[in-house]
Every structure is written in structure tokens, then in C-alpha cells.
């Protein structure tokens, strides 16, 4: 029996990278997983195979979380298929690197819509069901970049700064319904989003500039998410929890 046995978790952007890592760690603790993806159906199917091999129920759901109607429909379908939703991890996000002067309106709006709007609208839909159940856990995946600037990430950093405020405001608004809301501020974790095409994705590679001596890995984020979704953190809400190898301390 894992700490999340009997729980149902929706993880957005779970077809690969950090989302897949989080889904795996939640599944190791017994949670059934709804895998959200946008375009990579092959990767989503691979994630489902991995999760089912861990002995949990897993299904996949295609939706662009940046479109409110798609986000709401996905959550309702998850509840119909699994009978409930206990956990929402808002991981889906984009980071289209661009020089400040090259960020056009379409790029700006898409980044805000997916990263910030997606987290809000998925949360709103999920919280309606959690409110009826009298409890729930929502975890946003933010970033240390919301505190430390990235030269080609102005639009991304702005969207993730919004996640910080969304987290604290949602925690205050939803606490009376037994719903806890926290954010993980992700440090440097190589994925296909931030790794140049053709280069291998490094896992836990040494980094002498970080106090912990290595870069991050999706499982590091997953283990933190497990804690924030279990009753071990039942009195924790509204936190911005850095998982960054000590980056913000330097």
C-alpha cells in the first residue's frame, strides 16, 4: 500500500520530461494516473505503458490546456472515467526561447495562455469536483526563473511569476473547501524543451556551481510532488517550494 493508493491524479503535460517523471513517482505510491498530452500521442502511450507496469490504472487524454473549454472537458472526462479526482499537477508548459525584441504578440499570448491560463482553468475545473469531495491537492510546477531572470525567457518568466501569485491566491480561496494548493519551483532539469536537438538529455550530471553538486532530474520533482499530495503535508498550503539543488541559495 502506497501513500497515494486509492487516489486519482491528473498530470498535465505528462507524456514526457518532468510530467512523466512526476506521474511515475505518484504511481509508485499507488495513485491512478490520467496522462494529459497535446500532440505526442506516441510519447503519451509510452508513459501509460510505464505506469501500468507499476500496477496502477492509467489513461491518456489529449487536450490543449491553454484552451479553457478543452481543459474543462478533459477534467470532466477524467472524473467520468475514474469516478473522482483527488490530485491535479499543473505541469504542462512551453518555453519558446526568444530575444526580448523578437517576442511577438502570438508568442506572448500563447506562452501566457498555456503556462498560466492552463494552470488556472484546469484548477478551476478540478476544484469544482474537489470542493464536492471536501478535499484535494493541487500542485503547480513553477520555476526559479520567476526569481532569477533568463535573458531569452521574458515571456516564460512572466507566466511563471503569475503562477506564484496564482498559488497563494488559490490557497487562500480554496482552503475552506479542504483543497491545498502549492507550487514547486523547478531548478535546472534538462528535458527536450531546453536541450538542443540532437544532444542527449543529461540525467543528474555534475554541476560544481550548485550546492548539491548536480543538475536536477524529473524524479526529483516527482518526489517533491508526492510529498505535497500526501497527508504528510496536510497542513501545508500556499507554499512556493524550490526544488533546485540549492540554486536560489547561491
Description:
By secondary structure, the protein is an alpha/beta fold. The chain has a single domain (8-249), classed as 3-Layer(aba) Sandwich (Rossmann fold). It is 41% helix and 16% strand. It has helices at residues 17-28, 41-53, 68-82, 105-133, 154-174, 218-229, and strands spanning 8-11, 32-37, 58-62, 87-90, 136-143, 179-186, 240-243. It has a 7-stranded parallel β-sheet with strand order 3-2-1-4-5-6-7, with helices on both faces. α1 (17-28) packs across α6 (218-229) and α3 (68-82) runs parallel beside α4. The mean pLDDT is 95. It is an enzyme of class 1 (oxidoreductase).
Radius of gyration: 17 Å
Spell the H/E element sequence: EHEHEHEHEHEHE
Average pLDDT, all residues: 95
* Count of alpha and pi helical runs: 6
CATH architecture: 3-Layer(aba) Sandwich
Largest sheet: 7 strands, parallel
The backbone outline, from C-alpha atoms, is globular
Give the number of DSSP strands.
Answer: 7
**CATH fold topology:** Rossmann fold
Number of domains as seen in the coordinates:
1
Question: Which sequence of strands runs across the widest sheet?
Answer: 3-2-1-4-5-6-7
CATH class: Alpha Beta
Distance between the ends = 39 Å
Poorly predicted tracts of residues? none
Give a brief outline of the structure.
The chain has 250 residues and is an alpha/beta fold.
Question: Key terms for this structure?
Answer:
250 residues, alpha/beta, Rossmann fold, 6 helices, globular
Explain the layout of strands and helices.
Blueprint (H helix, E strand, L loop, with lengths): L7 E4 L5 H12 L3 E6 L3 H13 L4 E5 L5 H15 L4 E4 L14 H29 L2 E8 L10 H21 L4 E8 L31 H12 L10 E4 L7
Parallel strand pairs: 1-2, 1-4, 2-3, 4-5, 5-6, 6-7
Amino acid at each position: 500500500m502506497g501513500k497515494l493508493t486509492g487516489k486519482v491524479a491528473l498530470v498535465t503535460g505528462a507524456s514526457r520530461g518532468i510530467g512523466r517523471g512526476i506521474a511515475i513517482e505518484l504511481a509508485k505510491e499507488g495513485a491512478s494516473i490520467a496522462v494529459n498530452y497535446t500532440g505526442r500521442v506516441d510519447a503519451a502511450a509510452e508513459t501509460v505503458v510505464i505506469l501500468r507496469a507499476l500496477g496502477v490504472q492509467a489513461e491518456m487524454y489529449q487536450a490543449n490546456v491553454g484552451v479553457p473549454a478543452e481543459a474543462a472537458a478533459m477534467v470532466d472526462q477524467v472524473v467520468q472515467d475514474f469516478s473522482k479526482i483527488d490530485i491535479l499537477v499543473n505541469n504542462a508548459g512551453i518555453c519558446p526561447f526568444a530575444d526580448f525584441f523578437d517576442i511577438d504578440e502570438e508568442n506572448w499570448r500563447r506562452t501566457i495562455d498555456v503556462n498560466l491560463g492552463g494552470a488556472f482553468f484546469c484548477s478551476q475545473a478540478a476544484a469544482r469536483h474537489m470542493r464536492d469531495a471536501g478535499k484535494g491537492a493541487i500542485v503547480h510546477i513553477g520555476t526559479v526563473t520567476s526569481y532569477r531572470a533568463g535573458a531569452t525567457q521574458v515571456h516564460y518568466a512572466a507566466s511563471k511569476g503569475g503562477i506564484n501569485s496564482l498559488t497563494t491566491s488559490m490557497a487562500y480561496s480554496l482552503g475552506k473547501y479542504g483543497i491545498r494548493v502549492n507550487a514547486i519551483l523547478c531548478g535546472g532539469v534538462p528535458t527536450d524543451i531546453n536541450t538542443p536537438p540532437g544532444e542527449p538529455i543529461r540525467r543528474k550530471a555534475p554541476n560544481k556551481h550548485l550546492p548539491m553538486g548536480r543538475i536536477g532530474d524529473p524524479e526529483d520533482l516527482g518526489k517533491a510532488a508526492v510529498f505535497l499530495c500526501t497527508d504528510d503535508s496536510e497542513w501545508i498550503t500556499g507554499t512556493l517550494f524550490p526544488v533546485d539543488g540549492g540554486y536560489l541559495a547561491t
